[in-house]
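Methods: holo model generation. Sequences were used as deposited, without trimming of termini or removal of tags, and paired with ligand SMILES retrieved from the corresponding compound records. Each pair was processed once, and we did not select among multiple samples. The sequence and flavin-adenine dinucleotide SMILES for this entry were:
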Amino acid sequence: MQYPFTDEQLALADMVGDFMEREVAPVAAEIDRRPDPKDCYPAELINKASKLGIRTLAVPEEWGGAGADTTTKALCLWRGGQTEIGVIKCLSQCWKISTAIAKRGTEAQKEKWLKMFVEDDDCVGSFLMTEPDYGSDNLYRQPGAHLGLKTSGVQDGDYWVINGAKRFTSLTSWAKILIVFVRTDPKADLQQGTTCFLVSGDQEGVTHGRVHDKMGYRLYPNAEVFFDNVRIHKDDILGELNRGYHVQATIFRGSAELAACNTGLARGIFNFCNQHVKDRIQGGVPIIEHPTVQHMMAEMLMNIEVAEQFMWRICWGVENDETFNSRFTRYGKVFSDQMALKTIALATDILGGIGIMKDNPVEKMIRDLLTFLHGDGTDSLTLLRAAQTLDEPV
Ligand SMILES: Cc1cc2nc3c(=O)[nH]c(=O)nc-3n(C[C@H](O)[C@H](O)[C@H](O)COP(=O)(O)OP(=O)(O)OC[C@H]3O[C@@H](n4cnc5c(N)ncnc54)[C@H](O)[C@@H]3O)c2cc1C
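and the model returned the structure below.
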């Protein structure tokens, strides 16, 4: 590996990789095939990962975690994603939740929420932004108070009363900590009128709806949830009132999460192909001896390695460069999405019929890779956001 990882980072990634291969790989296909998406949440595996310290990897050391930085998180996610993406993405979600509370929370909130998160091996969290009528609108900066999420918060003394509905949100049905994006100033534009609230998953007035039946990432389930006069104390506002988008920026722009998911999964597909081309005989020789297959394998690896190198560059920039332009994190997502699509096209050619047969793990990897290309916003919208910074210096 070319990026100068520390010995500690490499040891953590090895530990994660070992856990994924030992505990997750043998059971992932069976869980993925369960017909009811409610049955696909890997509770037992999250609990086991927690006992190894993986769930709390990003919690600051003074609060009992490993204090993992952006590079460490991306490295562990990339490594784990080569084996199975759903379980490691559940854990990465835990890293995001704990980072948000550690960076944006008050001392009292850390005492209440971060401590609870660390002590409970089954505790996961959820970010709730998307609503039935507002998906991309929440991620694109456009003027107009009528645009964007409508889950409302109305002040009543020391409490805020929340009403509304969210959908497509990850891990919500199992989350003990909900970070809910709420419109607290309906007359302001979305970015100036939204507040993040910390809400308990079993808070009175919170009703969990259906779990979505997804094509891939089935071990990382998404769901609907409804808020009916949910009363939240003002002390549970995460960040400042009407500045919920600052919390969002902390979580998403300081991360290479989706690039790590895509490159990890693509590496997993490459590894499978790399073995297959040596084992499969056609024309009297292993198919790797055919120049067409050599060319496709080289092209697949080139795309993956370029995306990986750019991902490590993003991590370095986030950690070391105060002027780092968030345009690059957007490129990391979009470029790795495009690399993912190209990887699938090449793999289905190299593997022929077996690429889509359910009796090998690559079929699931292909479904998984196709499932989350719109994560944190579609590519078209993400590039539209990048276009808003064309004149900003690098
Ligand atoms: C696996 C998975 C995990 C997810 N996890 C979460 C989560 O944890 N929390 C959460 O809040 N959400 C989550 N989501 C939701 C996700 O963020 C949205 O699906 C995504 O933002 C796109 O919104 P949409 O699906 O409503 O698409 P739409 O908004 O309907 O977009 C459809 C098309 O219209 C285009 N478009 C829309 N608006 C504009 C515009 N103004 N200008 C130009 N083009 C536009 C888009 O680019 C896209 O091409 C998840 C979704 C999935 C499937």
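The pocket of flavin-adenine dinucleotide is lined by residues 127-130, 135-137, 139-140, 168-170, 217, 222, 371-372, 374-375, 377-378, 380-381, 384 (CB under 6 Å).
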